[in-house]
């Protein structure tokens, strides 16, 4: 029994020391930046605060034009809104973005768009999905 406990303790120690902190999300900017992320509201739970975004190349089901973001690697932020004539989504550069800390995106809207700040906590980020929570 002692030998089993010792093996478990060593296994647990190895697993814990190999875990990476959340700070590793920030270096994954390559997965986030210079890609257009469109909101996939069909994948969101009704009572959840988590928003789901997919790359524009994703095979979305038919719907109204989608909102979204383009986070440029140089810090520019573009927001996509539905066109007034329902002709798709239209981009407009609205401000800047940076990684504030581990998994927090800090966005800043320019005066033209209401000069405000917002924060998004990145819940999941892969090449095919971006899940965020508005803070």
Architecture overview:
This protein has helices at residues 2-18, 29-32; strands spanning 36-39, 50-55, 68-71, 76-82, 89-101, 104-109, 117-125, 130-134. It has 135 residues and is of the alpha+beta class. The protein is 16% helix and 40% strand. An eight-stranded antiparallel barrel has the order 1-2-8-7-6-5-4-3. The chain has one domain (22-134): Lipocalin (Beta Barrel), CATH 2.40.128. The protein contains two helices and eight strands.
CATH architecture grouping: Beta Barrel
The structural class is alpha+beta
Major β-sheet, in short? 8 strands, antiparallel, barrel
Number of DSSP-assigned strands: 8
Query: Which fold name is given in CATH as the topology?
Result: Lipocalin
Strand content: 35-45%
Which stretches of 5+ consecutive residues score pLDDT under 50? Answer: 1-27
Distance between the termini: 48 Å
User: What is the highest CATH level, the class?
Assistant: Mainly Beta
Helix count equals: 2
Order of strands across the biggest sheet? 1-2-8-7-6-5-4-3
Tell me, rounded to a whole number, the average pLDDT: 79
Global geometry = globular
- Overall tally of domains: 1
Could you give the order of the helices and strands? Answer: HHEEEEEEEE
Estimate percent helicity. 10-25%
Integer-rounded radius of gyration: 19 Å
Entry keywords:
135 residues, eight-stranded antiparallel barrel, disordered N terminus, Lipocalin, alpha+beta
Strand-helix topology:
Blueprint lengths: L1 H17 L10 H4 L3 E4 L10 E6 L12 E4 L4 E7 L6 E13 L2 E6 L7 E9 L4 E5 L1
Antiparallel strand pairs: 1-2, 1-3, 2-8, 3-4, 4-5, 5-6, 6-7, 7-8
């Amino acid at each position: 029994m002692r030998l089993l406990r010792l093996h478990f303790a060593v296994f647990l120690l190895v697993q814990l020391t190999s875990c990476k902190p959340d700070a590793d999300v920030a270096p994954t900017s390559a997965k986030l930046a210079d890609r257009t992320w469109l909101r996939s509201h069909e994948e969101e739970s009704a009572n959840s605060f988590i928003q789901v975004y997919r790359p524009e190349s994703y095979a979305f089901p038919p719907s109204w034009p989608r909102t979204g973001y383009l986070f440029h690697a140089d810090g520019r932020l573009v927001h996509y809104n539905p066109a007034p004539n329902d002709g798709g989504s239209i981009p407009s550069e609205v401000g800047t973005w940076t990684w504030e800390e581990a998994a927090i995106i800090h966005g800043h809207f320019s005066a033209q768009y209401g000069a405000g700040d917002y924060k998004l906590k990145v819940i999941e980020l892969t090449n095919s999905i971006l899940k965020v929570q508005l803070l």
